[in-house]
Amino acid sequence: MKKIIIKDFTLLNKNEQKIVFEARNSKKVRAFCLDERVISFDEHLAFLKSLKHTNDKKYYLILLDDECLCVINFIKMGEKYNNGIYKISKKHIFIMDIIVLCTQMILNHILNQNSCIFEILRKNKALLNYHLMQKTPIYTQDDTCVTFLGSFNDDYVNTQIKSTKSLIGDFTLNIKTPNKTIEIL
Amino acid sequence: MTIKSFLNELEEILLSDDELTLDSDLTAIEEWDSLAVMSVMSLFQEKLSIVLTTADFKNIKTPNDIILLSKGKIA
After folding, report:
1. Theoretical Cys-Cys bridge with B24: which of A34, A35, A151, B20, CB 3.0 to 4.6 Å?
2. Averaged pLDDT, A45-73
3. Are the CB atoms for B64 and B8 separated by under 8 Å?
4. What's the pLDDT tens digit per position in A25-40?
5. CB A61 within 8 A of CB A9
6. To the nearest whole angstrom, how far is the Cα of B39 from the nearest Cα of chain A?
7. Could you tell me if the ipTM is greater than 0.90?
């Protein structure tokens, strides 16, 4: 059985910190970041440390068995959270399905929300098309970005679980937070 | 949609400088990833009115495998 783990950034081990650092600085990820700078490893470590003292920024590493798949983050904007993602593994075509499932799980079980905002740069055509295809309602838009408001209910979550099972087979899903590990599936 | 125009669209999605053929090995191309799959799904929906899911791509290895998903609409 496969094992999906959603791990709070404050709990990353040294190897995971390095993997995330390299992914964050890769050309492909930076191209779709609001902050396109290359950051130093010291800056990266300082950022990870800063996450221990805020509730407005939540970053999670998603692992499939022991492989780092992607990063999902949430930044509080008023009452809602703004969701961002970047992938680490290049091997799997189903990462997006796992991202959607994990996003729902974090919102439900950690942030106690049933919706969030996806801010997508217009140049990120694939992700933009994905949300347009999913008919995610547009929240705001300008020349650079389109923001969508994604909502999730139990039916949607169950469909996503079924879809992920069809891709990777049976799996367990745990969320590791600084205070506790939540066994979801 | 013609096979040629589909291959051109796929080359654009994969940012490929090399010409793709029906038998090109997609799994050997770094850009063949979840975002590329989403772009192909979007292309199918927009141009062919065919709705695909990621599961349809589980065993895709070549452009020809993708064309088979079009059920004759790419020919």
Report:
1. B20
2. 96
3. no
4. 999 889 888 788 999 9
5. yes
6. 5
7. no
Mode of pairing for the β-strands spanning A115-121 and A80-87: parallel
Which residues between 144 and 173 in chain A have a beta carbon less than 8 angstroms from any beta carbon of chain B?
Answer: 163, 166-167
Residue A91 reports pLDDT greater than 80: no
- Residues A7 and A61: beta-carbon distance below 8 Å: yes
Give the mutation candidate from B30, B38, B53, B62 for the A interface (greatest A CB count, under 10 A). Answer: B38
In this prediction the pTM is: 0.89
Do A76 and A56 touch, CB atoms closer than 8 A? yes
Strands (E) in chain A, as ranges, are: 2-8, 57-64, 67-77, 80-87, 115-121, 138-141, 145-151, 171-176, 181-183
Whether A133 sits inside 8 A of B55 (CB atoms) is no
Q: Which two tokens stand for residue A140?
A: 């705001």
Q: How many residues does chain A have?
A: 185
